[in-house]
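Incident log, structure service

09:12 report received: a user says their structure output differs between two submissions of the same chain.
09:20 pulled the input from the user's history:
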Amino acid sequence: MTRNVPRTYYIQTYGCQMNERDSETIAGILQGRGMTPARDMESADLIMVNTCTVRDKAEQKVYGLLGRFRELKEVNPNLVLGICGCMPQQQKVARHIKSRYPFMDIIIGTHNLSLLNTYLEQVLIERQQVLEVWDERAEEELALPARRSGKFKAFVNINWGCNNFCTYCIVPYVRGREKSRTPEAIVEEIEALARDGYKEVTLLGQNVNSYGKDLPEKPNFAQLLKRVNAIDGIERIRFMTSHPRDAGDELIAAMAALPKVCKHMHLPLQAGSDRILARMNRGYTAEHYLGIVEKLRQAVPDIALTTDLIVGFPGETEEDFQDTLSVVRQVRFDSAFTFMYSPRRGTPAAAMEGQLSSAVKKDRLQKLMEVQNQISLDCNRVLVGTEQQLLVEECDHGSCKGRTSGNKLVFFACDKDYSGQLVDVKITAAKTWSLTGELGDEA
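09:34 re-ran on a clean worker, output below:
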């Protein structure tokens, strides 16, 4: 006996842009079955949760959500529930979900999306729970359909996985080894996006700077940027994330020379102490990082720099923390994602001596945020009075928002819908997280 065929779906996504892109693939597969998005979980026939395991907080949110699913299933026994992504990619976690939440129908890892239709048929026809976790991503996934979440901006995967094995990071264990797409496949996808009216692409990878090392021809990331820059219709190119260990001179030269490459780099520092960087296995020193920043600012003077920072890593002393604050003050990041260290099962750092108390980590995080927030505000104030070009993302009731080349969010009043257009605005006011502007005369 088959279940009722699901007609609507809802996807809940946690984590990074790679997960957001995977959720677009999930949506594309389900749309290919004739399904349509539901307005909320309660009205959906199928719910997929795409998970993140980088930090404990994200995992706890997922477990809380799974607890709610029990009630939804009781109300609607035909509801199909699935979970995918980085959490179930860990076999132990996948088995825990299977036993603790037996009402979950589909439990798959990060590499199994190409068979989502097959798993769904198994659930509908055989009424069996599916648990399958592959160690590597299938080549077939490269050709899977996608339902893009935006109309003018799109994520494009260029490589997956990571070979760096930072001691705190679970990503190499759940995303696998680095695996690059061919330049031809990437260019073909972006050309299709341009024909569909997309103006901006963000090239995604756990470490875009190592792109191509696993391919026979050994194309590098700077060469890929040049090919994408030549695609008609694409106005802006972004990328993330860059590992400082692989941020070389050729990439910096490409950023300076290629007009479509945005003047923004997200370059995770993580810590400013050489001792902690070594314990993290980051592969560079604070001096090396500062050298990259100097080269970037010489080549692209108005570049916006953003970063990731971790406080409270095992063994971090007050002196180590002050080293981090010192580098933050020297670089003056436009913004930073700041985190307390969160132990991840199976990583070397989780077993290290010198685990710090939550109180110490919270105190250091607060101090770091105070320093960085003031710097962010100062950086934004420098832009007041300047003219900036925005790609407008959304307009609603006389108010528009868009982003500068440096990825600054700007709000401005408008008399018509400028969505998807490049417009010039004069910056009139600055806040910590955003700017306000007014349209130029020629808009």
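09:41 both user submissions now match this output. Likely a transient worker issue. Closing.
09:42 reviewer note: Residues 350 and 418 are 49 Å apart (CA to CA). The mean pLDDT is 92.
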